[in-house]
């Protein structure tokens, strides 16, 4: 993950405000259950994701 940069607190606050105001909506490409985390990482690594990939706990 060479591209990783730490979060900038001011940027995060601005994004939070925009999302709360309904002016910005993150594009969720796909959701994976926690049991499929390897598949989710592969999906991202292969460049198939066109938005955010969400990994969620199993219901």
**What is the strand tally?**
2
Helix percentage: 25-40%
Alpha-carbon distance between the termini? 30 Å
Q: Provide the β-strand percentage band.
A: 15-25%
Evaluate the radius of gyration: 14 Å
Count, helices: 2
Give average pLDDT, whole number.
90
- Helix/strand/pairing class, anyone? alpha+beta
List unreliable stretches of 5+ residues: none
Give helix and strand order, one letter per element, not per position.
Answer: HEHE
Shape: globular
Please outline the major beta sheet: 2 strands, parallel
Describe this structure as you would to a colleague.
The chain is an alpha+beta fold. The chain has a domain at 26-59. The protein has 2 helices and 2 strands. The chain has helices at 9-20, 37-45; strands at 28-33, 52-56. A two-stranded parallel sheet has the order 1-2. Helix 2 links the parallel strand 1 and strand 2 (52-56). The longest helix has 12 residues, at 9-20. The protein is globular, with a radius of gyration of 14 Å. The chain starts with 8 loop residues before the first helix and ends with a strand. 0% of the residues are buried.
Secondary structure blueprint with pairings:
Blueprint: H1 9-20, E1 28-33, H2 37-45, E2 52-56
Parallel strand pairs: 1-2
Distinctive features:
59 residues, alpha+beta, two-stranded parallel ribbon, 2 helices, 2 strands, globular
Task: Summarize, please.
The chain is an alpha+beta fold and 59 residues long.
């Amino acid at each position: 993950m060479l591209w990783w940069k730490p979060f900038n607190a001011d940027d995060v606050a601005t994004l939070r405000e925009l999302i709360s105001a309904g002016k910005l909506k993150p594009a969720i490409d796909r959701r994976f259950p926690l049991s499929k985390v390897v598949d989710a990482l592969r999906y991202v690594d292969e460049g198939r994701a066109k938005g955010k990939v969400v990994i969620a706990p199993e219901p």
